[in-house]
């Protein structure tokens, strides 16, 4: 499993989950589902990776910690086939790809972004 966290700030931070969901669905490279709760959103992405011949899931949790602040956590796991169940780097690849997508969305809107280590 691989994990990455970001913190996003801006007046329209509440619109980020919908924008990310629509962009991932438009990609059409796997299934994408969204759940919007009270103060948080959850986006689940499932994608097939040829390099390890298996499906892999990533979960993106967008937690509204304040009116204009959201903490974003990306978790990627699953996948890996064969005797050793090796992912061959696909977990970190998927996590970084999703983080890059969020950074791209935030760069085109009025957001401040901080990578949380």
Question: How would you characterize the overall build of this protein?
Answer:
The chain is an alpha+beta fold and 117 residues long. It has one domain: START domain (Alpha-D-Glucose-1,6-Bisphosphate, Chain A, domain 4), CATH 3.30.530. It has a six-stranded antiparallel beta sheet, covered by helices on one side. Strand 3 and strand 4 form a beta hairpin. It is globular, with a radius of gyration of 14 Å. The two termini are 16 Å apart. The model has no long low-confidence stretch (mean pLDDT 84).
Total DSSP helices: 2
Helix/sheet category: alpha+beta
Inertia-based shape = globular
Determine the oligomeric state from the structure.
single chain
Order of helices and strands: EHEEEEHE
- Radius of gyration (CA) equals 14 Å
Amino- and carboxy-terminal Cα gap = 16 Å
CATH superfamily: START domain
Q: What is the CATH C level class, in words? A: Alpha Beta
Reading side by side through the largest sheet, how are the strands ordered? 2-3-4-5-1-6
| CATH topology-level fold name | Alpha-D-Glucose-1,6-Bisphosphate, Chain A, domain 4
**In percent terms, what proportion of residues is strand?**
35-45%
Helix share, percent: 25-40%
The pLDDT mean sits at 84
Q: What's the main sheet like? A: 6 strands, antiparallel
CATH-level-2 architecture? 2-Layer Sandwich
Overall number of structural domains: 1
């Amino acid at each position: 499993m691989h994990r990455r966290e970001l913190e996003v700030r801006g007046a329209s931070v509440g619109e980020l989950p919908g924008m990310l969901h629509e962009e991932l669905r438009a990609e059409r490279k796997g299934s994408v589902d969204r759940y919007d709760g009270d103060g948080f959103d959850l986006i689940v992405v499932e994608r097939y990776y040829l390099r390890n011949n298996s499906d892999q899931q990533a979960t993106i949790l967008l937690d509204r910690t304040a009116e204009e602040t959201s903490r974003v956590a990306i978790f990627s796991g699953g996948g890996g086939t064969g005797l050793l169940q090796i992912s061959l780097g696909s977990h970190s690849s998927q996590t970084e790809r999703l983080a890059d997508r969020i950074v791209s969305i935030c760069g085109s809107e009025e957001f401040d972004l901080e990578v949380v280590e």
